[in-house]
Design a protein that fits this description.
The chain is α+β, with helices and mostly antiparallel strands. It folds into 3 domains: about 425 residues, no CATH class; about 140 residues, Immunoglobulin-like, CATH 2.60.40; about 130 residues, Immunoglobulin-like, CATH 2.60.40. The chain contains 17 helices and 25 strands. The strands form 6 sheets. A 6-stranded antiparallel beta sheet has the order 3-10-7-5-4-12, with no helix packed on it. Strand 15 and strand 16 form a beta hairpin. Helix 1 runs antiparallel to helix 5, helix 6 packs across helix 16 and helix 9 runs parallel beside helix 11. The longest helix is centred in the N-terminal third of the chain and has 31 residues. It is elongated, with a radius of gyration of 34 Å.
Length: about 725
């Protein structure tokens, strides 16, 4: 008899849950308390029960912290309220300070990830409310560890002679970064997942070994407790009943089947009946979901639109979308997990073909598939009514997902370490790469770095002492501009002040804006320490749909939050200025290139061997528009001049300028490319009642050296045909 290789002799039944728990401690450290979706609501229910000694009631009043979670099944909250009461945190009102500028549900945008302000995110604060939350989250992690153990035991039940299969199935659960993230949050999703995983394990044992009274009772209790944790736990009841019916057809064990049904009915009645009756009494409905929808807000969405718009979010949030649905991992991670899922599904078809005569394995696939299908249908029904397409809602079915994928991968002979090792490495790295950087406070410095540009601008008690920016460049839609600002507060502000950073055109139009508290939302000004220098890093994202063709500047300013007026900046010289701006180059959207209409007069004169006058148009008796196109790239402080002379220009003879209207190109030519076009606009200011046909000349000159660009005309300027000028009416 061939002996098993050494790696498969390891005690994975306890080793994998232990590894999961240890990695979970890392996520417990990395993610602050309120950063998973709806954590504040779940904490609100626990806090209410601990303080009021009763379950909350869903109502039309929205000011309570528990929000829509008031009508959730209460088992998780009841368990956690016991520990909350024992710790008696009295500083919750001071600790829980929401970030009003948080970006929930916008993973494509950067910064402001923190739902709450934290005085001490790292290392953790272990006292008062923070300590109570860590205890709650640690207990929740313990529940999730049981889930991992149950997935392993379920996999061993399916293929007991293949320990590598159990390792593979368990790794798909235990080393899923999103599962780890939710497992260390405050959420009833974790308890229902634990109880559902235990129920799946017992159901699979029932399919393999037949009916047993103790197992039927355990199954019934798990289903009832799962239902009392979250309504998705109720999906187990019909699936287990159908599994029992299938087993009845195979074994003819009517007594065993009857005991299973009676146990399930009795457990659901005794354990959950009071809660259903309470819902009928309070809300006039069995489950309380209608009251939750009334509070949360309903929506109407078609199934095709749901699949088109939200399937991607559901998929990626199953594998790793941290924070309040706001922190993405690397795109390659999602592509790899998509590929793994697709391979697993293909392999599952191969597995079914290979074992088409194995009744037990077919029943396993049928049971797990039906459970996942009904759970998915319930999720679709829910998300058609409310925005809730999040991957964590699939975790109660994680046993089905992991084992079905593992069966497919195993059928294609994909080694377990080939999947488990990269997933383990990534779930270890994810907190450091994606979570901690979003919540840590900005670093404090003793002095300004030598690489920073020194500046001295004040907004009240807030001083900007330096900044770092990329060199002026050409920016386009979709680009990102990194910048670092160095703040030195004179003292903490009495009220929170918000910072804005805008990319503006030469006309003052904002193309992109960051609106935030310092530290990209992590550190309010009320917590600043005077005289400290804070390094504040940002990335300004230019929207892909931004339009413009202009020089660009960064406009930086402050205002008292939420609706105070902008604070005028004060320079070191004592001069009060309207706005503090920093040139950043030019913003060029090629689709925003301006040209004149077909009624313009065509031309073709080239200036400086680089700039061609395509066309010009004169209107309203005093407005001249010129359409230009670069024939090659050119640099310099170049401007267009347009002058109206009383008489035609003659070399070496005096001339009288009737009016002059110079204009700069909308974007500095250093940042434009050959072939790009733009228009300059010259509005002549004429004396009152002026009318006549002066001689008009146009050309280019370098403002820095006061020299004109060459042109094939006298004095390097083009004379336009006679134009009828008249001053506009006042």
């Amino acid at each position: 008899m061939r002996r098993r290789s050494a790696p498969w002799n390891l005690p994975y039944h306890w080793l994998l849950p232990l590894v999961f728990f240890c990695v979970g401690l890392l996520y417990l450290y990395a993610a602050p308390h309120f950063e998973a979706s709806d954590t504040d609501r779940h904490v609100g229910v626990i806090k209410w029960i601990a303080e009021a000694g009763a379950l909350p009631v869903q109502s039309g009043e929205h000011e309570q912290l528990y929000g829509q979670e008031a009508s959730q099944p209460p088992l998780y909250y009841l368990l956690m309220s016991f520990f909350w009461s024992a710790l008696e945190p009295a500083d919750f009102a001071d600790y829980f300070q929401p970030n009003p500028l948080v970006l929930k549900g916008h993973p494509e945008r950067l910064g402001n990830r923190n739902v709450v302000f934290y005085r001490q995110p790292y290392p953790p604060d272990l006292q008062g409310t923070s300590l109570a939350l860590y205890v709650t989250r640690l207990l929740t992690l313990g529940m999730a560890t049981v889930s991992v153990a149950a997935v392993y035991q379920s996999a061993r039940t399916v293929l007991p002679e293949q320990p590598g299969f159990a390792l593979l199935a368990t790794a798909l659960t235990a080393f899923n970064p999103m599962f780890l993230f939710i497992s260390t949050s405050v959420s009833n999703d974790v308890l229902v997942t634990t109880l559902a995983s235990l129920a799946c394990w017992q159901a699979l044992l029932m399919l393999r070994q037949g009916f047993q009274t103790r197992r039927s009772i355990a199954l019934a209790v798990c289903i009832a407790l799962a239902t009392l944790s979250k309504l998705s736990g109720l999906v187990l009841a019909p699936v287990v009943a159908l599994a029992g019916f299938w087993l009845l057809l195979r074994t003819r064990d009517r007594r065993g089947f009857s005991i299973l049904l009676v146990a399930m009915f009795a457990a659901l009645t005794l354990i959950t009946g009071w809660w259903f009756l309470r819902n009928i009494n309070l809300y006039g409905e069995l489950t309380g979901t209608g009251a939750m929808l009334d509070h949360f807000g309903r929506r109407t969405l078609s199934l095709p639109r749901l699949l088109l718009d939200e399937f991607e979010g559901l998929r990626i949030s199953f594998w790793g979308l941290f924070g309040a649905f706001s922190i993405l991992t690397h795109r390659l991670h999602y592509l790899l997990m998509d590929a793994l899922s697709l391979i697993g599904l293909i392999g599952l078809c191969v597995f079914l073909a290979q074992h088409r005569r194995n009744g037990f394995l077919l029943s396993v696939v049928g049971f797990l598939s039906l459970y996942l299908a009904l759970g998915g249908a319930m999720l679709i029904w829910w998300t058609l009514q409310v925005t809730a397409s999040t991957g964590r809602l699939l975790f109660p079915y994680v046993t089905s997902i992991s084992i079905l994928l593992a069966l497919g991968l195993r059928a294609l002979r994909i080694p377990a370490p080939l999947v488990a090792a990269p997933m383990f490495a990534f779930c270890i790295a994810a907190p450091f790469l994606y979570i901690i950087p979003q919540y840590d406070h900005p670093p404090r410095l003793e002095r300004l770095p030598e690489s920073a540009a020194s500046v001295s601008v004040r907004w009240g008690d807030i001083a900007l002492v330096g900044y770092q920016l990329p060199a002026p460049a050409r920016w386009s839609p979709g680009d990102e501009i990194p910048l670092t600002l160095y703040w030195q507060p004179l003292q903490a502000t009495d009220a929170p002040h918000a910072l804005f950073i805008s990319l503006i055109t030469s006309k003052g139009e904002a193309l992109a804006t960051i609106d935030s508290f310092p530290g990209w939302g992590a550190l309010p000004t009320t917590w600043w320490e005077s005289a400290a220098i804070y390094q504040d890093d940002y990335i300004l994202q230019i929207p892909k749909g931004a339009n413009g063709f202009s020089d660009a500047q960064l406009h930086i300013g402050w205002y008292p939050y939420p609706d105070g007026a902008n604070i005028p900046p004060l320079l070191e010289s004592g001069e009060r200025i309207e706005a503090f701006t920093i040139p950043i180059g030019a913003f060029v959207d090629v689709d925003s290139q301006e040209t004149l209409t077909a009624d313009a007069t065509k031309d073709g004169t080239i200036f400086g061997d680089a700039i061609r006058l395509n066309a010009w148009r004169f209107s309203d008796g005093h407005i001249l528009e010129l359409e230009w196109q670069l024939t090659r790239e050119i640099a310099g402080d170049l401007r267009v001049f347009a002058i109206a002379l009383a008489e035609r220009y003659q070399p070496d003879e005096p001339f009288e300028i009737v009016a002059q209207a110079d204009d700069s190109p909308p974007a500095r030519l250093d940042f434009l490319k050959a072939g790009e076009t733009f228009v300059t606009r010259h509005e002549f200011e004429l004396a009152a009642a002026f009318a006549g046909e002066p001689s008009v000349y146009v050309g280019w000159y370098d403002e820095s050296i006061s020299q004109r660009l060459s042109a094939p005309y006298r004095a390097n300027m083009l004379e336009l045909p006679a134009l009828r000028f008249f001053a506009p009416e006042p």
